[in-house]
Amino acid sequence: MKNVLLATGIIASSFNALAANLTTEELRIEKATAAMPNVVTAFSDDVASLKESWQSVSSYQQATDLINSYAKQLWRDAKQRIVKSNSFDDRELYWARLQSSKVIRASKPGFVMTDAEQSALLTMLENGSRGRTELAYTKNTDKKILLTGFDPFLLDRHINQSNPSGVAALLLDGQVIKYKGVTAEINTVMVPVRYTDFDQGIIEQLLAPYYALNNVDMVVTVSMGGKDFDLERFPGKRRSVTAPDNANIVYGGTATDPKISSLNDRPLPGNEFVEFSLPVKQMQKAAGPFPINDNHKVVTLEKAFEPKSLKELEGATAVKGGGGGYLSNEISYRSIRLRNELNSDIPTGHIHTPRIAQFEPKTEAKIVQQIQTMLEMSLTAL
Questions:
Q1: What span, in angstroms and rounded, lies between the C-alpha atoms of 41 and 188?
Q2: How far apart are CA 227 and CA 372, in angstroms?
Q3: Residue 177: closest CA among 381, 349, 378
Q4: C-alpha span between 125 and 101 (Å, rounded)
Q5: Could you tell me the sign of the dihedral formed by the alpha carbons of 53, 58, 63, 65, in that order?
Q6: What pTM was computed for the model?
Q7: What is the pLDDT of residues 302-359, one digit of tens each?
């Protein structure tokens, strides 16, 4: 009996140690598998192959080669799969990425790996599987557009949640669009819903080269929002919501005490509000089932209102920008602030898509089509 108890204790201890090494997102894999097995197992053969290869690599260089190649291929395969299946499902890539990072975090490779090496490999997996390593414009078009989408979020409310902006990122990456003789190539990146990544400068690292060199013609950030499409005119600087991120971190900002986020361990610089520069009149002409609003709504510590210009916001403290007080608003604020700081003239702004309940492929198909039409309508103004 003692031996049985001892063995049980060892197993439990090993399980607890393993669980302690996993992230909050990785710990949801089991629940997600039970809720939507077809989604979570979409790339199970790829993940199994990764694990087998991972356990046999004999050096950090081999591990680097493996993860670099695997991550890029995961992004390519996810794009091909969503097109081939016509599923309009971004969730398969999200859960495949987490299963892959779990392999790196919880399975021992065939060499002694340092914490720094593990961190570098996990970053490599993130970058490759989010499209960040494949941003070359190769189609010889008149214009170049960079678009970002987000992972699914608020997964403890709905483990099966999809995100139309992620669907758009997968379907529009590498596409060439055309309007009135003007062509444009679209490149996309998938962004994590994690406060820490934003505080560490993930958006600035992504966008700084483009703004510094003015070598794209429009930057569009996209996320899921409310009833209609909203083009967010006045993003605000501060976080003010109690909703957790995907790591279950609640930043602490409230409607009465909004918080300034960080940029590499320092308070994020910049004015309380900035203004977008998208070709709004052209984008609003995009036909589709949803209205496209030029959203001027903001909330300051003093009041909620719809300013006509930035001048009306001078001296105010931001509670919510047009995009709210969460990371949707923040990606827009950070991109525009950076654009202004680097003296770029690249049109930049945020599209909030209509909200969906968990997973609505027919609605998401309409949303992505209307986003594409918005981008096409904008071409003559770029």
A1: 25
A2: 19
A3: 378
A4: 7
A5: negative
A6: 0.94
A7: 999 999 999 999 999 999 999 999 999 999 999 999 999 999 999 999 999 999 999 9
Name the token pair of 201. 């400068």
Residue 150 tokens read as 């987000």
Q: In whole angstroms, what is the distance from residue 246 CA to residue 166 CA?
A: 15
Rounded Cα distance, 379 and 375, in Å: 7
**Residue 311, SS3?**
helix
User: What is the distance between the alpha carbons of residues 37 and 382, in angstroms, rounded to a whole number?
Assistant: 44
- Give backbone dihedrals phi and psi of 73, rounded to 5 degrees, phi first: -70, -35
H helix intervals, the chain: 2-21, 29-35, 37-40, 44-54, 60-85, 91-106, 115-129, 164-172, 195-199, 202-213, 280-283, 327-341, 361-378
Q: How far apart are CA 41 and CA 226, in angstroms?
A: 31
Q: Is a pLDDT exceeding 80 seen at residue 1?
A: no
**Under a CB-based contact definition with an 8 Å cutoff, are residues 219 and 346 in contact?**
yes
